[in-house]
Give the backbone structure.
Amino acid sequence: MSRLYDISQTLRPGMPVWPGDTAFAAEPTWMLGESCPVNVSRLVLSTHSGSHADAPSHFAAEGQTIDAVDLVCYLGPCVVLDMTHAGPRVEPEHLLPVLPSRVERVLLRTWTRFPHDEWCSDFTTIAAESIDLLAERGARLIGVDAPSLDPEVDSALLAHRRVHHHGMAILEGLVLDAVPPGHYELIAPPLKLAGADAAPVRALLRELG
């Protein structure tokens, strides 16, 4: 049986979130007991909580919302590349030695150890030229373990805009610590949230048999 890697963050109270964004919270609304047959909870969260997919509408006025994106982008063959040596930005010269000639989906590991318990502003970002290179090789999705393709303090969003130009999909906030570089099957469709600019995903990688 092929090994399955869960590359999703655990949504939980106290998890780090983008500065100023909505903190995750969960509380019971119904509780199992003598007078109630079920447990039911209420969630408060950002559309960008944990491991998530950005919709084009997140950064492009004319972009699709997350309920309208092509789910095929989030399902199928992908390659995981180790970019832990590349900081502060993944440039084409970091990718060229390890990037296959043709790819469909590319996940980049940039953290040596994912920061589950604290927000780190100095995450590795992706050069716009690297997005162009991935698109040239056929990529329809880029995924990263960082919270964003672009720097925390950056209104230009050059990497995001190159992704939009090429019609690619984005996954952010993945956890790739336990995943060796190589080829896998990606399974990571976003939640179908009407009109939303992003949505959490339960991202999985399956080893190719």
Helices lie at 92-95, 128-136, 158-166. The chain has a mean pLDDT of 97.
